[in-house]
Design a protein that fits this description.
about 300 residues; alpha/beta; TIM Barrel; eight-stranded parallel β-sheet; 10 strands; about 45% helix; globular
Length: about 300
């Protein structure tokens, strides 16, 4: 794997837990409105500043889209250009990958049905969507975006929707090309999928991805994952989705949060991030509580 050239990411690979860098992939409209901010570039940058985050990501689409089914909005390349002008900080984008774009159009059941009947047809439409993804990535790299997250939700809590061999056969060349293009500019290529993705991580590593973004600790064996991949992958994770779903953090949740950080932060390579994004107005208060707990436990 190439050296992580950005100064902030060099810090992520440090050999001691002096600090857990922080960032979020998705910040929903209701979160910004609850903080009395507009869901626009300035609002997202203000959230990063007020929360003390080190990274900011913008979900990107070919055209600006309003709030999605997951409560967050997509931004256009023009808006990412605006963000780049407004900040010298670490800026990343989240781009739906070819699989995700096809599933968004066909629906997962229809995709799987078509896949079982005519793999050549699926290969064709995946390549068509890959062309759009490549164009978006090229546009972002011209803006000196430092990280590109390719988001393809291949998995649920028990495993992947497709056999790992099929994922390799249909996605390896696409991912390898995308990652190589990102690396040409010195930027970082990260991958996101919900669910139990352990069986496809070796494929992602072979493609050259630098890390995993928003990986769900609820669906992964953290001890095994860190042992097997911690020296070669940076992980944006550590905050489980259910930490936001209770009125207050229970003792068991606090203990699990600290345990996760001890495992994932060992030797560096951890960026503290939620697995599900921020979608409710009270998420910011809970995030502050988690940040404070991490500071008190590891850095006081």
């Amino acid at each position: 794997m190439k050296e992580l050239v950005h100064p902030l990411f060099k810090a992520f690979q440090q050999q001691s837990m002096d600090y857990f860098p922080r960032g979020e992939l998705w910040i929903g409209t209701k979160v910004l409105n609850g903080a009395k901010l507009e869901d626009n570039v300035e609002g997202h940058l203000e959230i990063r500043k007020s929360m003390g985050m080190d990274l900011i990501f913008f979900p990107l689409a070919p055209i600006p889209l309003p709030e999605s089914d997951f409560s967050y909005r997509y931004f256009s390349i023009e808006q990412v250009t605006e963000a780049r002008k407004l900040t010298r900080g670490f800026l990343g984008v989240v781009i739906d990958g070819p699989f995700q774009r096809v599933v968004n159009k066909l629906g997962l059941i229809n995709f799987l049905s078509n896949f079982s009947r005519d793999k050549n047809y699926i290969a064709g439409i995946l390549e068509k969507e890959a062309t759009i993804v490549r164009g978006l990535i090229n546009d972002c790299l011209e803006l000196n975006v430092q990280a590109v997250v390719v988001a393809d939700d291949f998995a649920w809590e028990k495993g992947t929707y497709l056999h790992p061999k099929d994922i390799k056969n249909f996605m390896f060349s696409i991912y390898s090309e995308v990652v190589n293009r990102v690396h040409e500019t010195g930027s970082l290529a990260l991958f996101h999928s919900c669910g139990a993705i352990s069986k496809i991580v070796p494929i992602l590593i072979t493609c050259g991805f630098d890390g995993l973004a928003g990986c769900q600790s609820e669906c992964l064996d953290l001890v095994a994952f860190k042992r097997d991949y911690g020296k070669i992958l940076t992980m944006l994770t550590g905050i489980e989705g259910n930490f936001f779903q209770t009125e207050s953090l229970s003792s068991s949740q606090e203990q699990r949060f600290i345990r996760n950080l001890k495992i994932l932060g060992q030797g560096g390579g951890l960026i503290l991030c939620s697995s599900c994004g921020l979608h409710s107005p009270n998420n910011l208060d809970r995030l502050r509580t988690l940040y404070q707990l991490a500071n008190k436990t590891f850095f006081s």
